[in-house]
Write a structure and sequence with these properties.
- Helix 1 packs antiparallel against helix 2, helix 3 packs across helix 7 and helix 6 crosses helix 7.
- The protein is built from 12 helices and 14 strands.
- The strands form 4 sheets. It has a 7-stranded antiparallel sheet with strand order 1-3-2-14-13-12-11, with helices on both faces.
- Strand 8 and strand 9 form a beta hairpin.
- It has 379 residues and is of the alpha+beta class.
- It has 2 domains: 61 residues; 293 residues, DD-peptidase/beta-lactamase superfamily (Beta-lactamase), CATH 3.40.710.10.
């Protein structure tokens, strides 16, 4: 298990900064009082972080968690830790800054790119697919709106119910052979309408692949470039990007799944991760994702009104790109799961509390209970 010492370093910096400031602004008595308060406060926060770290470590060991965790409350990092192995055969441990596939957390980035276009007047959430993709061949083209793609109420056949007869492993479907995004759109995202648009929630990666193609068409460049230009580069998220098989991959934690017979972890079968595209092909770190969430909720990526739309729950408590749940305390929940990849962003809508957990095995198949366990420790 690794826990970074950067938290304690930040507290030291804060103390020294406070001392420098008061030297010029306060009388000697006020100066002493203020410095004392700063030291007491930072020591209390540090102690809280130490206690929380012990609780998280105990939970991780008991549940054989492999991955990285970051916890922020009221602008302060209370935990930044890692557990398990990034590569089992070579004994390479996960570290706090390890990069992971983040699976469907990618959808939250796609949502932001769509809402940015809406704010710029380049797209209407009421607009239909064919308004932006005039050559789209599916029957949903003139029926399904951008809003219905965002909240998974398109009513289209789920792309993962459409098999690829050319690939021998049926369970991999659209992800078992290399496709361009145009091929994914045509082959897997033009299925029959099964429900009236807006009437039925069905979690469908195809909805976000269509949104990715709309983003590309409006900007006139690849989704990856739009993502870099409008989110990653401005926020200096240098440890995040798209997983693409044909490119030299960055050092990303391998993913492992439990063998049902032996109960041992086995490396996941190869798949073309880029085929998850705008629905789930990104990689990142806990710290980079924390930057993204902080900027999102500071209205530096989208406006306050757009954020309110994103966080307003609809069918299945789903807003735009995330679930919005809770009564006494409301949370944005954004999960990601692809085989051994298990991830979650949990952000309180009522206080500055963010928990991000990125995992690389399916020993814990749902990280929600882990994240809410941390919430309970902070009450």
């Amino acid at each position: 298990m690794f826990q970074t010492d950067s938290f304690s370093k930040k507290l030291d910096i804060l103390q020294h900064y406070a001392i420098d400031c008061v030297l010029f602004e306060m009388s000697s008595m006020k100066r002493l009082f203020f410095i004392t308060l700063c030291i007491i406060y930072t020591q209390v926060v540090y102690a809280q972080g130490q206690e929380l770290g012990q609780v998280i470590t105990r939970y991780a060991k008991e549940h054989k968690f492999s991955g990285s965790v970051i916890v922020q409350k009221k602008g302060r990092i209370l935990n930044f830790s890692a557990y398990g192995m990034a590569n089992i055969p070579y004994g390479i441990p996960n570290r706090p800054e390890t990069k992971y596939q983040i699976a469907s957390i990618t959808k939250l980035f796609t949502t932001v790119l769509v809402l940015q276009l809406q704010e710029q007047g380049k797209l209407s959430l009421a607009g239909k697919i064919r308004d932006y993709l005039p050559d789209y061949s599916g029957e949903a083209g003139e029926k399904v709106s951008i809003r219905q793609l965002l909240n998974h109420t398109s009513g289209m056949a789920n792309m993962e119910s459409i098999p690829d007869p050319e690939f021998k492993f049926d369970w991999l479907g659209a992800y078992g052979k290399p496709y361009t995004s145009n091929q994914l759109l045509e082959k897997f995202c033009t299925g029959k309408m099964l429900h009236e648009p807006g009437s039925f929630f069905d979690y469908n990666n195809g909805d976000y692949i269509i949104l990715g193609k709309i983003i590309e068409r409006i900007w006139g460049k690849p989704y990856e470039s739009v993502l870099n230009d409008n989110i990653l580069r401005p926020l200096r998220m240098q440890k995040s990007g798209m997983c693409i098989q044909a490119k030299l991959a960055p050092v990303i934690a391998d993913t492992y799944s439990v063998n049902a017979v032996t109960n041992e972890l086995e490396k996941d079968e190869p798949a073309y991760i880029q085929n998850w595209y705008a629905a789930g092909a990104m990689y990142s770190t806990t710290s980079d994702l924390l930057i993204f969430i902080n900027q999102l909720f500071s209205n530096r990526l989208i406006s306050r009104s757009s954020l309110m739309m994103l966080t307003t729950p609809g069918l299945d408590d789903y807003g735009y790109g995330a679930w919005i749940r809770g009564k006494n305390q409301r949370f944005l929940e954004r999960y990601g799961h692809i085989r051994g990849t298990n991830t979650i962003i949990l952000r309180s809508l009522d206080s500055d509390l963010t928990i991000i957990i990125l995992g690389n095995t399916d020993r814990i198949n749902n990280l929600g209970p882990f994240a809410y366990y941390i919430v309970d420790q902070l009450k």
